Amino acid sequence: MSIEFLHTPSAPLEERALIGGADGRATDVAVRLGAWFGDERLRARVSSNGAVALVELRGEVGEDSAAALVSALDLARGVPSQTVGVVLRHVGWVDSEGFGALILAQKRLVEQGRRLLLCAPSEPVRDALRLTRLEVLLPVVRSVADLHGTT
Question: Which of 44, 88, 99, 100 is most buried by a 10 A CB count?
Fold first, then answer.
């Protein structure tokens, strides 16, 4: 089953972000709903179908790439949806800064009566969640389709 995430707000949903460049200097970029952004370490895209804001990630979430994750999570929090799903299928690893960003996003969403769900984490990310016991704090679903079946 294929699920397509689209959102057409009355005004384009946009976030300003500082993304680290290969030369180590930060670059100010516009982060738009539905567009991929980031750099060679981590690419992110936020989309929505109204009920779920979906954050798709590709790469590794480390100290140098956490800014892209934070920007994606901030953009997703601006989408009027009950659930924010973070797809980790194509993420090789997440360090403490990345997990910290996920925990902070979850805290902010819970304060708004919303929720954050991690979706289809890769085996290394799943192992890290299990070893740190963060799977208790950050709920995990197996697939994007499961985001719609959770309550």
Answer: 44
Please tell me the number of Cα atoms within 13 Å of 20 on its side-chain side: 16
Q: Which residues of 2-28 are buried (b: 16+ CB within 10 A; e: fewer)?
A: eeebebeeeeebebebebbeeeeeeee
Q: From the CB of residue 41, how many other CB atoms can be counted at a distance below 10 Å?
A: 17
CA dist 39 and 139 (Å) reads: 27
Q: What is the pLDDT of residues 57-82, one digit of tens each?
A: 999 999 888 899 999 999 999 999 99
pLDDT of 122 over the 50 cut? yes
Grouping H, G, I as helix, E, B as strand and the rest as coil, residue 78 is: coil
Residue 115's DSSP bridge partners are 83
- Beta-strand relationship, 83-94 and 140-141: unpaired
Contact by Cβ (8 Å): 16, 30: yes
pTM over 0.70? The answer is yes
Compute CA distances 149 → 24, 43, 51, 53, whole Å: 42, 27, 11, 14
Local structure of residue 10 (DSSP, 8 states) = S
Helix (H) or strand (E) holding 150: none
The Cα 85–Cα 111 span in angstroms is 17
In angstroms, rounded to a whole number, what is the distance separating the alpha carbons of residues 30 and 86? 20
